[in-house]
Amino acid sequence: MGAPIRSGNIGRPTETMRLIISTFVGVVVGFFLGISFPTITLTKINLPSSIFPSIDLTYIEDKYSGLSTQALLNAWTTLKSGSYNDTKVYPLLLLLFSLFIIWIPTNPRGAERLPPDIIESQSDFYLRRLWGIPSEDLTIKPKYLVTFTVGINQKKNIDKAVRKFSENFTILLFHYDGRTSEWEEFEWSKRAIHMSARKQTKWWYAKRFLHPDIVAAYDYIFIWDEDLGLDNFNAEKYIKLARKHGLEISQPGLQQNSELTWEMTKKRDDSEVHKKTKERNGWCGDPHLPPCAAFVEIMAPVFSRDAWRCVWYMIQNDLVHGWGLDFALRKCVEPAHEKIGVIDGQWIVHQGVPTLGSQGKADAGRSPWQGVRERCNREWAIFQDRLKNAEKTYLEAAGIDASSLESDNQKRIRE
Question: Alpha-carbon distance 220 to 143, whole Å?
């Protein structure tokens, strides 16, 4: 007697084969159906948030040039109607499901396929352990960042300077001479961040390593030179004064026996903060413009988080000395003559040691520092022209008279 056979076992292979054949035919028919429609370029179609996020159809067209937008629209209509048995659109439905179950146009560029909750768009310079639980790595999160661009010859001065900053500060050293291991003698060096690239300036480093999203954890960012005397300086008290007087961009006053270039940066004995000054004859056509107001030097600037986000974008990639930047800082805060100032209550000394100048190249009988100074002046002129032309282009496109751009205290000074 033969073994009994259940009727259900006979039908299953037939149904499976039918599904395979239908899918194959659907792929073929869907392909020819897609190329038979004329291509219609649509910018974007917004789908119900309960099913899909906003889908950028131009992206699909670019990646899958053989598919027409009309074919994709047909597939979407079928999906909404619940008619899943139409083999003509089945392959396109699979494409939509596989590629665009997650597509968030408001995510950072390149991260549109990620769910928003997994995206980390910002970082910091906090040092972490190689072991243990990540949430327990940090006993303290520094609120401020201080950077010095240094060479080994200024090691003792930087050691004294760094000791003026508490554990509330992340210490970041940019080494322009490549000598990093020789700083290990200092205990604080073990918690500092060291970056090294030979013969580079602090603005070269700042543009490449201090992107606003990298330093977003810090309320204030100090970007300082190495030849500063900080004997009379307290960093925590400085921050309190900056907040008290609403300064988004600031610098400490320079003691009067310092090497001074501008009257604005000179320390005053009768105030905590000053925001304007009188300069040489003819230099202050507009008393609200640099160098008479809304001005600090690039030697020892301190930026709030929001101000730095603007300033970083203004730093030019190829102009490494930053000359002229101090005259343009006012573009990043409003009103600039109120939010940029010099803090007299905490002052420093500018020692005027031309250490970076020695990193230049001797040429045609000229010393290395002469070539560096020539480059600084050239960059100042280039930056001034770029900024003026950019503003002029924008204003003219908006139908606004740009002739007022010609009046600038900076022009008088450079002449």
Answer: 8
Topology annotation, domain 141-409: Spore Coat Polysaccharide Biosynthesis Protein SpsA; Chain A (3.90.550)
What is the 8-class DSSP label of residue 358? G
DSSP state of 330: G
Closest CA to 210 of 229, 228, 188, 195: 195
Copy the structure tokens of residue 158.
Answer: 């930087």
What integer pLDDT is reported at residue 376 of this predicted model? Answer: 93
3-state secondary structure of 110: coil
What's the sign of the alpha-carbon dihedral 240, 244, 248, 251?
Answer: negative
Rounded Cα distance, 312 and 249, in Å? 13
Give the angle subtended at the CA of 366 by the CAs of 362 and 370, to the nearest 5°: 85
Answer whether 415's CB lies under 8 Å from 296's CB. no
Q: What pLDDT, in 10s, does the model give residues 86-99? A: 555 556 556 655 55
**Secondary structure (DSSP) of 253-264:** EEPTTS--S-GG
Which residue spans of the chain are classified as CATH 3.90.550? 141-409
DSSP string, 282-306: TS-SSTTSTTTBS---SSS-EEEHH
Greatest alpha-carbon pair distance for the chain in Å reads 121
Are the CB atoms for 327 and 410 separated by under 8 Å? yes
pTM for this model (two decimals): 0.75
Low-confidence ranges of the chain (pLDDT < 70): 1-100, 258, 356-362, 364-365, 368-369, 404-415
User: Tokens at residue 83, please?
Assistant: 């008619």
Question: How many CA atoms are closer than 13 Å to the CA of 399, on its beta-carbon side?
Answer: 0
- Give 144's strand partners: 169, 220
Tell me whether strands 169-175 and 249-254 are parallel, antiparallel or unpaired.
Answer: unpaired
Q: What type of residue is 396?
A: E
State the Cα–Cα distance between residues 274 and 239, nearest whole angstrom.
15
Q: Which residues, at least 6 apart from 402, have a Cβ–Cβ distance to it below 8 Å?
A: 391, 392, 395, 396
pLDDT of residue 39: 43
Spatial neighbors of 225 by CB under 8 A, at least 6 apart, are 148, 149, 202, 299, 300
Q: What is the Cα Rg of the chain in Å?
A: 31
* Per-residue pLDDT reduced to its tens digit, 348-366: 999 988 776 666 666 766 7
Tell me phi and psi for residue 222, to 5 degrees: -95, 125
3-state secondary structure of 409: helix
**Residue 296 exposure: Cα atoms within 13 Å on the Cβ side:** 30
> Six-digit token pair at 31?
């392909």
